């Protein structure tokens, strides 16, 4: 079955701390992976995506993610978070019939 | 492009009333998705269309929910009769083939 698992439901960090959000997927086909961000009261926006090629993907706002095929993982990282990164982060895999399967999300709170 | 347009942004209705949510996808996108987001269940895919045809409606919670896509530029999600547990944010998204999903701003539905 296709699924996405995000390890942390809530993360609290201080500004300038480093961030890593875990994501594991289960899907047998060609893997297309995404991270979306949802700022408070807003809709989902794409942070970054992996379709093929370099497994280290750089996205907007200093975020990056690494696709590790052997671990079925696609963890999101940022070396130094800001208060404005406070949001909910969703990992997703593109399943069959172009259906996007989301993880449960991780709520990040960054304190000044 | 104006992106995916949803209306209304907010809807407050009384239990038992019919509610209709509207979505205009990005021109040229051939996939359209309806998601529901709640604190308890996160993001749930309700139904999606390809070329105006419903492909998978297994996420539609009950017969009270119905969705249509009469043409490539318009879709509706209807709840009749509405219940308080339907209160959620409903997102519409569209995509083209295996391209990135673009989400609308959502409709926040409150059923009292």
Describe this structure in words.
The complex is a heterodimer of chains A (112) and B (112). By secondary structure, chain A is mainly beta. Chain A contains no helices and twelve strands. In chain A, strand 7 and strand 8 form a beta hairpin. In chain A, 36% of the residues are buried. Chain B contains no helices and eleven strands. Chain B has strands at residues 5-7, 10-13, 19-24, 31-38, 42-50, 53-56, 65-71, 74-79, 88-95, 102-103, 107-111. In chain B, strand 9 (88-95) and strand 10 (102-103) form a beta hairpin. Chain B starts with a strand and ends with a strand. The A-B interface holds A 32, 34, 42-46, 49, 51, 90, 94, 97-102, 104-105 and B 31, 33, 42-43, 45, 48, 50, 55-56, 91, 93, 95, 97-98, 100-101, 103-106.
Biggest sheet record of chain B: 7 strands, mixed
Q: Which ranges of chain B are low-confidence, i.e. pLDDT below 50, for 5 or more consecutive residues? A: none
Largest interface, counted by CB within 8 Å of the partner chain's CB: A-B, 19 and 20 residues
| Mean pLDDT level of chain A | 92
Quickly give the structural class of chain B: mainly beta
What is the approximate shape of chain B?
globular
Indicate the proportion of strand residues of chain A. over 45%
Outline of chain A? globular
Written as H for each helix and E for each strand, in order along the chain, the element string of chain A is EEEEEEEEEEEE
Q: If you compute it from the alpha carbons, what radius of gyration of chain B comes out, rounded to the nearest whole angstrom?
A: 13 Å
Number of strands of chain B: 11
How many E strands of chain A? Answer: 12
**Tally of separate helices of chain B:** 0
SSE ordering of chain B: EEEEEEEEEEE
